[in-house]
Every structure is written in C-alpha cells, then in structure tokens.
Amino acid sequence: MKEQLATIRQQALSALEAAGSAQELEALRVQYLGKKGELTSVLKMMGKLSPEERPAMGQLANSVREALETAIEERGRVLEAQALEQRLKDEALDITIPGKPVKIGHRHPMYIALDELKEIFIGMGFTVLDGPEVELASYNFDKLNAGEGHPSRDWSDTFYFDTDSRVMLRSQTSPMQVRAMETMPLPIRIIAPGRVYRKDEVDATHSPMFHQVEGMVIDKNVTMADLKGTLNMMVEKLYGKGTQTRFRPHHFPFTEPSCEMDVQCHKCGGVGCPTCKGEGWIELLGAGMIHPRVLEMSGIDPEVYSGWAFGIGLERTAMRQFKIADLRLIFENDVRFLEQF
Ligand code: DAH
Question: Is the dihedral of CA 36, 39, 42, 44 positive or negative?
C-alpha cells in the first residue's frame, strides 16, 4: 500500500505538472481525488489493515492527498495566468497605429459675414429674431403698405402656394418688422436674418434663394439721423474706420422717406474701377423711416413713436468681404472653396 501511495503521488504530480488547461486539470482531479479516484480507492482499503498499521498509513495517505490538492491549486493559478496573458496578447491593440483623421468643417463665408453683423448689432442692444420662410402675403405685402396691384406682388416674381396668392415664400425679410411690432413691447431694436425667395434665374449675381438681414428700431423721437449714425457705425466696423457712405433717395412702400446707402469702393477709393463698375460707390442696402401707415397697421401710434428700418443682402456683403466673384460658389458647397475661409 505504501508503494501504491508513492506511485500515485509521483504519477499524479507529474501529470498535474503537464496539465495544459483548466479542463485537463479538472479531469486529473477527478481521476485521483474523485469519488472513484485512484487515491480514494486506496483509502477505501484502509479497513483491511491491522490497527497498528492504520495510523501511519492514514497519515501517509493524507499527506499524498494534501500534496495533490496543493499541486492542483498551484497548477490552476499558473494556467489562469497563462490564459490571461494569451488573451491580452490576442486582444492587443496597437495604439501606435495612426488614427483616422477627423474632418473638421469650415464656417461658411456667408455665416462669417452674418456673425460679424450680429455681433455689431448685439453690441448696440439689438435682439436677433428668426421668422417663417413660408409667409402670409398679408405680412409680406399688405401690412408693409404694398396693397393689391403693387408690382412686387406679381406672380412672375413671387413663389405662391395657392391660386388666390395668400401664402408664399417670403420675398424679403421685411415681414419680420410686422411680426416684431405685433408681438414685442416698445421700444424695439431687432435684426432678423434669413432666407428669402424670388423667381430669378441662377447666374453669377442672382439666385432664386438668397439671404437678407432686416434691421428695425422703434422708439420715441427716433430720426433719420439715428439711422445714418447706426448704419455708418456698422460700415466702419465692417470695412474699417473712415469708410465713406452716401445716402441716395429711393422708394420703398414701407418707408418714407426711403433711401439706398452706398459705400465708397474699397478697391479704388471712389475714383471708379471694374469692381464698382466705374461708379466709385457700391450699393449696400435699402433703408428708410418706417411709413406712419405701417406703424398704424401694426397698432403703433405714429404720433408718439417713430422708427427706421433697413434691409441688407447677405451674399453680396460676403462676396465683397471675401472678394468672391460668383454667387453660385456660395451655394455649391464645394469643400475646396469653403476651405479657403
Ligand atoms: N425689403 C427690401 C428689399 O428686399 C429692402 C429694404 C428696404 C428693407 C428698405 C427695409 C427698408 O427694411 O427700410 O429690397
């Protein structure tokens, strides 16, 4: 029996040492220490020994069991560590491989120009308003003093949704004047940028969709001097101190008096060149004192309040600022173009 135990010990220990996986290890545990295991069957024969032999043999058997248990535990730990190492190796990431570059977008030149305008006017206490592009003709025309029969309402110029010309794509941001007057408490200082639509063929200077920024101030004792002062300030911030402007009389149905403002050509300084088509001046915007009838229609007493308004084309402003020759470039979204700004 002594030899048997010694053989089991030796064989088991070398088998355990060679076990290559957790499953093999478990199979060996069952083979030696399980209910029908080799060591167990030897222990079962202890009953046949004489009482004198029993204690020594019992001790020996126990020491073999302990040795096997320890060996199983140790081998288990080694195998576990090996398995972990293998997994780390298999799942290893090479963090030195260069990543996929993230493409960072560019601000669109027109929005650069818009942000600059917003900043100028926010700095003067103006609020920026957003409004509907699908607009009622009553807001786009009637409440702006362009009644039935006014040439700007013509079907050939305007995108109407219905046959009785009541719903349309706004042809100007000026309806935002009315929406502001109807909803905001006085005094009012707003700008309202956004898309406008007209039936124009696409070419280097025209597009059926373009952007305007509307501006409006209503308060007591507001005069044309305030309009000129504010617009001159805007021009100096956009084009530099000392930039000359001139105001020409014009006609808009919703302002009286009305004017257009030109800036002196930045290219030739007013002498005349191809940029300003020999004029020395470049038209920038339309403006004027809000017509008393427009104030009245929106529930504001023209005897107490007065105001001014202007409308500026955003594409043209950006084209001038960034020396862009063709309007179509602004809308084509060619990354090579956008990357330049
Ligand atoms: N809405 C005009 C246009 O599209 C521009 C304009 C002119 C706006 C005079 C105004 C203004 O607010 O006072 O041509």
Answer: negative
Distance (Å) from CA 120 to ligand 1 centroid: 19
Which residue out of 310, 315, 317 has the highest number of ligand 1 atoms within 8 Å of its CB and is therefore the one to mutate? 310
Pairing outcome for strands 245-250 and 209-219: unpaired
Nearest CA to ligand 1 atom 3: 172
User: CA torsion, points 44, 45, 46, 48, in degrees to nearest 10?
Assistant: 140
174 lines ligand 1 (CB under 6 A): yes
Q: What type of residue is 148?
A: E
pLDDT above 90: percentage of residues in the chain: 58
Peptide bond into 257 cis (omega under 30): yes
Residue 280: helix, strand or coil by DSSP? coil
User: Does the Cβ of 286 fall within 6 Å of ligand 1?
Assistant: yes
Q: Which helix (H) or strand (E) holds 263?
A: strand 255-264
> Distance, CA 46 to ligand 1 centroid (Å)?
113
Decide: 7 and 15 in contact? Cβ < 8 Å. no
- The reported pTM is 0.72
Residue nearest to atom 6 of ligand 1 (CA): 311
Say how far apart CA 258 and CA 149 lie, in whole Å: 21
Binding site membership of 172 for ligand 1 (Cβ less than 6 Å): yes
pLDDT at position 212 is 97
Q: pLDDT per residue over 5-47, tens digit each? A: 888 888 888 888 888 888 888 888 888 888 888 888 888 888 8
Q: Classify 278 in phi/psi space as left (phi over 0), alpha (psi -120 to 50) or beta.
A: left
Cis previous bond, 187, omega within 30: yes
CA distance 318 to 32: 88
Mean pLDDT, residues 298-327 taken together: 93
Closest Cα to atom 7, ligand 1: which residue?
286
Residue with the smallest CA separation from ligand 1 atom 13 is 287
Report the distance separating Cα 170 and Cα 16, nearest Å.
87
Digit-coded pLDDT (tens) for 76-112: 898 899 889 999 998 888 889 898 999 888 889 999 9
Atom of ligand 1 nearest to the CA of 172: 4
